[in-house]
Amino acid sequence: MVIIIMFAAAVAFFLSVMLVKNKGLSAILALIFGVLFVGSTALMTLNYSHHFGMHQVTTTTTKRIYPVTSTMPLALYQPVGTSGEDNVYIYKTSAQQKKPVHTQANEYTHSKIKWADRSTPRLVTKETRWRYKNNFYQVLYAGAGMDKTLVKRTNTLEYPRTYVKLTVKQAAKLQAVAKSPQAAQMQASAQQTGKTYVSAKVQQAMAKNPHMSAKQIQQTAQTAQQEFQAKMVRQMLKQLN
Question: Edge-to-edge strands of the sheet including 164-167?
């Protein structure tokens, strides 16, 4: 609305000066439309520079995420800079997704990993944006493009403690090693060792709590499998180093 008023006042000011023959009426109209133009321009400037008529609104969203490699509990990231505060984290939003996505890389976004006592990873996003205080300001500044302007965003990727944090470069090296003939032999041996490891963990848990439900047993087995896979990844990383 204020944009329309500003342009309309500018046009009206020009017409009142150039086309109105009566000097007295021309001066009055020029004064009115001049004040409207200056006032609307000032309102626009205040909105852009000081967010006049707006306030900050913070929202938090949570969604389940999945590792890039479904067979390995990996928290994958791409280092950016040296502080670690600008790192980009890579994940999938569904188990069937073919192409992974990543956290935003811009000056308003900070992403980090948090290790948590949970069985599945999730992404917690906290955003602060500028919103208009009420409908009056929303109508007044319609088309100004300032609504929902991002102030800051924090992405917290909560991973189970059994996950291993890897760079994209390290993951590529692991993938290359996994395709070697020696790795195939190791995987065949590790498969049986892994089953034994998971079975032992489940038996230990059932010994402590004989009344475990089927869901609890499944969660225990899943956590044990992730622990074993993480150990295998760490061993392979030691060989690479």
Answer: 101-102, 88-91, 74-78, 164-167
CB 171 within 8 A of CB 233: no
pTM of the predicted protein model = 0.77
* Widest CA span in the chain: 101
Gap between the Cα atoms of 13 and 114, Å rounded: 60
Which strands sit side by side in the sheet containing 149-160, from one edge to the other? 54-64, 122-132, 149-160, 109-116
What letter does residue 134 receive in the DSSP assignment? S
**Residue 207 confidence (pLDDT) above 90:** no
Q: Report yes or no: 167 and 78 within 8 Å, Cβ to Cβ.
A: yes
Q: How far is CA 141 from CA 11, 90, 99, 108, 144, in A?
A: 20, 38, 39, 24, 5
Assign 185 a pLDDT band (cuts: 50, 70, 90): low
Pairing of strands 88-91, 101-102: antiparallel
| CA distance linking residue 147 with residue 114, whole number of Å | 31
Tallying the residues shown for the chain, one arrives at 241
Report how far residue 18's alpha carbon sits from residue 227's, in angstroms, rounded to the nearest whole number.
82
Task: Give the pLDDT confidence of 74-107 residue by residue, as tens digits.
Answer: 899 999 877 777 899 999 999 899 899 999 989 9
Q: Is the pLDDT of residue 240 over 70?
A: no
The type of residue at 147 is D
Strand partners, 64: 122
What tokens appear for 35 in the block?
Answer: 């004040």
What is the bridge-based pairing of β-strands 122-132 and 164-167?
A: unpaired
Residue 9 CB: number of other CB atoms within 10 A?
A: 20
